[in-house]
Model the fold of this input.
Amino acid sequence: MTDIKTVWKNQPMEENSMITLSDIRVRADRFQFRIRLRNGALYLYSLANIALTLWLISRGVSPRYTAPGLLLLAAHLFVIWQLWWRTSARALPDDLVARAALDYHRQELERQRGAMAGAWLWYILPFMPGLLWELWLRATLHPANVPPVADRALVLFLILSALFFWTSVWLAFSWAAARLEVRIERLNVLKAE
Amino acid sequence: MGQGVAAGRQDDLYLKASAEFGPALDRLARAYEADPSQRLDLLQDIHFALWRSFSGFAEQCSLRTWVYRVAHNVGISRRVRRRRPQLISLEEMDQLPAEGTPEENVHSIQALARLHALIRALKPPDGQVMLLYLEDMDAGAIGEITGLSARAVATRIHRIKALLARNFRRGEFP
Done:
């Protein structure tokens, strides 16, 4: 009589699942290409932002916002670099096999939790100086063609919108970090058994 | 890489591992992925990771342990990256009623489908332990691959046997 392990081991093989060395090399090339493509897209995005900001400055569209605009641009570049650094270095960790599955899984979760828990530092804080400066400039602008009440309402709306947006971002990261923490704790319990 | 191997040997090691463990890797990919195209993609990911990994292989462990660690780590990474349905532990699965009667599950196709579903529903490392148990590995080897203590592996194997007994015809497995 067939036992369940025999059933398991005798299951039909996947069709076309034979993988040759040339398949592997094609995949290695594709892997490198994807990294180059993603990096290229990030560089292109940065260059587009730089070009737009420089164009606005050179045209003198709104001189009051030049300095905070540059700060936001710098923040944008910093965040892009952080995203690139945090993801590219780990596309396929070198120590993939040096660890047992449980340790590796925990390491992956801890890495993600670290990124989530520290997001206020690398994703939110860099934008704050430029954003606050822009908001302050707008709050003190008092355009002659806008009634004071409407102006104050608009400024309040801008402040609340910014507050709502960035608080949501922070809460989303914190929530993700808390969920990861629970999973890490579960693995710690397993490890301690 | 000081402790690593030369490029030619990396290829040789990969070919040896692929020949020896290819069918097991295929089964592992099936257990991780229900969708055929995703499964093939995962299988290729595993083979690619395996080939890359051999540049750092200095016989720190047996070839079998190395291969299974890489394969499971690639599978786990994929699960971590992708949002999956709610996974449950072996203890939680004990509380669930078995799907279909043991007699209905006796046919190998149904049995396989049920086995795949069970493994996919389990949280790591329970799913890995079940997979390795089905691959006929002993508790020591399972512990080496998963990082669980021998006692934790033994407890899980005990539960897995009970789970299999509830889902498949009694007396058909050791």
User: Anything to note?
Assistant: The mean pLDDT of chain B is 81. The helical segments of chain B are 7-32, 36-53, 63-81, 90-94, 108-121, 126-134, 139-146, 150-167. Chain B has two domains: 7-81, 90-167.
